[in-house]
Amino acid sequence: VYYTLQSLSGTGDWPSFPSIPTEEVKNKLLDASERPSLFYWAHFMDPHYPFTPKKITDRNCHLDFSPSELSRLNKQFIDDGECDDIGKLTAVYNNIIRYLDRQLLDLFETLQARNRYDDSMIVICGDHGEAFGEEGVYGHGWRSKPIDALVDIPLLIKFPKSAYSGRYSHRVQQIDILPTVAQVLYVEPEY
To answer: Which whole number is the average pLDDT over 122-148?
Structure first.
């Protein structure tokens, strides 16, 4: 699916994950938005293991530990399935999420300034959650039990002209995304 979406996107050949930071992905999307394509796709890898923020993005976040300690915590987290200071690793993860949020805000504001936002349909979906010790689970390994931290993932859809705006609390699944997009685009999805 990754390579199919990538080939449809018109955004060029991007190296496979995890090599591209969010800011570069955002800039590639903005460059691509200058072309009249119908579909752009991106995969943001910053909030994935290993949790190593390249930039301090939250002025109130004090990450007062060394890169070697962060490396040790990441190794414990993924190799041992536990972590002796999960609070530090969670702080880094939350900082990375805030960084991604700011990059997405910048993307949307730039699309608005270029008059590309209102007519666009934008889908943002997490590929999985991350467990930081909930129910004894660390990470998101496929052998983990399907706890809420792993399966309750973000799904945001911005419809053209902001139709259907609002917040919905009912559960949906990723399998619902394709038929939703197809309905908005008036196409019959092929399964």
So the answer is: 83
